[in-house]
Amino acid sequence: MSSTAKVQLVDDVKDPAQQKNSELNKPQMPLIIGGLIVGAILLVYLLATQNSVQSLLLVIGLLVGYTLFHARFGFTSAFRRLASVGNGKALRSHLFMLAVAVTLFAPILAFGYAFFEGGVSGYVSPIGVSLFVGAFMFGVGMQLGGGCASGTLYAVGGGRSVMFITLLFFVVGATVGAHHLPFWTEDLPAFEPVSLATSTGFGYGGAWIVSIVLFGLIAWITLVVEKKKQPPKMAPKPSAAGWKRIFRGSWPLFAAAVVLALLNALTLMTRGTPWGITSAFALWGSKTVQFFGVDVASWGYWQGENAAALESSIFADSTTILNFGVILGAFLASATGGLFKFSKITGKNATASIIGGLLMGYGARLAFGCNIGAYFGGIASFSLHGYIWGIMALAGTFVALYLRPKFGLSVPKSKDSFC
Fold first, then answer.
1. I want to staple 382 with a disulfide (CB 3.0 to 4.6 A). Which of 64, 183, 197, 332 is the partner?
2. Where do the DSSP E strands lie in 177-319?
């Protein structure tokens, strides 16, 4: 097939207005003003009722959401492109993001750099049955639900209607997963957490070298796969020129990778742990069922260090504030680009969203996090569990490729297919 005959891939989160027009849309000023007012009210409330950390995290979350939407920086689509047609460009942007992240995380974790008292610690989690099962479930779920944890949040902010269903059942799945977690972690086999830095004797310098070598090896493998399969390329998106591109149009994936790594490092130094998403979903769901009389406090998940979060306001939960910021940032980015528009919900995509949300929520609790907390945060923290999470989520993606057509969801099958 000639190069001119190859049809290009498009992103997971589709913007109908962007697809119909090659030119940029006009900013939706009423929505922008409304979003800024909501953000200002929330910021003032946090300044008045919470510590300064929460206010800073809201701003960081807003910048994360803005970046995710502008670059359409997806994890779900990156895994699916590689699994279905062998296109590894988006996955290589992940590797570049991780390379920047480990470069920033290494000195922060080694020397305990933090903006506030309390120190810093990475996400280093056990390796056991729960990790393998949970990450696999998440991989299937994100392909059915139409987005990963971060993708769900920024798609909601961008007005993709069906993702509100995914988010709702993501919360349900995370709550059930929190209730069942002691069985998976205490009654089934597991090994102690393994850190490339502290468990191996490499130190953070050695762990950084190992990490960079691994990223390079994985990138090389994706290039070999591409050379063999000759997949279609990712479609370019409309964008403004010069500095206006910050506000209008698409950002390059690799630029967004740098920004996301920097923002994750800022999160680590601000609250003492990396960026995470799904622990807040378990909190929201648990507080909801507690309101209806369920004795949530007796669950093993809410014992020990998690007990304080259950007893406090959700506005005291740093992950919740980050999530609110991501949604608001994506909303502002979509409105600035003139792209905010509610999309159509059908019976099939609603059913897929329900199943996908449940699988992701439950799987994230079992796997000690999602594509952000376990994959991004875990690998950036030099934890072996982050790499295993990625492998199992990719395995789940392969399985989901056979399930997506049953729900009317597209799957590229050849070089001239759309993603």
1. 197
2. 190-191
Q: What is the residue type of 270?
A: T
Q: What is the pTM of this model?
A: 0.90
* Pair of tokens at residue 283: 């909190």
Q: Are 349 and 134 within 8 A, CB to CB? A: no
Structure tokens at 43: 């910021």
Contact by Cβ (8 Å): 202, 210: yes
**Type and span of the H or E element at 120:** none
Beta carbons of 7 and 416 less than 8 angstroms apart: yes
Cα angle for residues 68, 310, 121 (degrees, 5° grid): 55
pLDDT digits (tens, 9 = 90+) for 318-349: 999 999 999 999 999 999 988 899 988 999 99
Rg (CA), the chain: 20
Token look-up 């929190």 returns: 178
Q: How many CB atoms lie within 10 A of CB 217?
A: 10
Q: Is 267 within 8 Å of 60 (Cβ atoms)?
A: yes
pLDDT digits 0-9 by tens, 17-31? 344 334 578 889 999
How close are the terminal C-alpha atoms of the chain, in Å?
18
Q: The tokens of 227 are what?
A: 């050379």
Give whole-number Cα distances, 52 to 43, 55, 139, 318, in Å: 10, 5, 36, 11
Distance CA 209, CA 86 (A): 27
Element (H, E) at 191: strand 190-191
Tokens coding 151: 């993708």
Between CA 317 and CA 345 the distance in angstroms is: 32
Instruction: Tell which residue, 96, 93, 79, has the closest CA to residue 12.
Output: 79
Side chain identity, residue 314:
I
Half-sphere exposure of 284 (CA within 13 A, CB side): 21
- Count the alpha carbons within 13 Å of 29 in the hemisphere toward its beta carbon: 1
Q: What is the C-alpha separation between 190 and 12, in angstroms, rounded? A: 35
Encoded tokens for 340: 């905010």
CB 364, CB 75: distance < 8 Å? no
- Measured CA angle at 355 (ends 410, 58), to 5 deg: 95
The string of DSSP codes covering 284-310 is: HHHHHHHHTT--GGGSGGGSGGGHHHH
Distance between CA atoms of residues 230 and 243, nearest Å: 34
Instruction: Give the Cβ contact number of residue 255 at 10 Å.
Output: 16
